[in-house]
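A favour, since you know our structure tokens better than I do. Just paste the record in under my message, thanks.
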Amino acid sequence: MNMSILIEQKIIEYLKQKKVVKPKEIEQVFNLTLSTTRRYLVKLEEKNMIRRTFGEIIYNDDLKSNVDANANNKILENINQKKEIAKKAVKLVGQYKTIYLDSGSSCYFLLDYLDKDVVIYTNSILNATRAINLGFKNVNIIGGTIKEGTLSIVDIDMDFINKINFPIAFMGVNGINEKGILTTPEKREGITKKILASKSDLVVVLAEKQKINQQSLYDFTPINKKILVVTDHDKLINLENENLFFIYTKGERNEN
């Protein structure tokens, strides 16, 4: 086995046992230099194995909300819920001729109910391919780097983004915490989501009930932007975000 991989695995096991440590402790235990330690920690953070905050390294125990699943596996989760949410969310398209469609797996099912003449922009290879297969006439992928696993585009082309504004954006989410903060597990995904949400007049988030009062690692909540959350939650939700409004699949809208 490659020595670098072996050391990485040992660091993971150590962090798994300790939960929270200082970077200096990693240096001393594994006899590493400061720069080498930093390199390992950056790599582990990119894999969502750890969080680094205020001079501490925290092992991520909550894999449910803090790890991106394979794109195909995510689509197979909670299918009936996602379809129900998609049916409700598609009504918000109204007269809009152009939409942004996020890489979230819930957005995948929105394609089943959209008019085929709608112009689609997306950062998802999977959703773009499905849109074409379903007969959509104008499908556009935002340029950037393809992220392995989710097949979403990150490190997006800012020259293009600076020249465009979307009337409505449909976004996926990994968790919405008690303060109404939208979160996702991976930093580049979070940056991409926040940029594209900020370039949209109206942001619509598709969230199964399991994602309410959950928190992942990175905040992608757009600033001073009206956000509609379409959910199948069966109870009225009140979170600490005055810009957040909930639409229920079995009821009407409520405002915080």
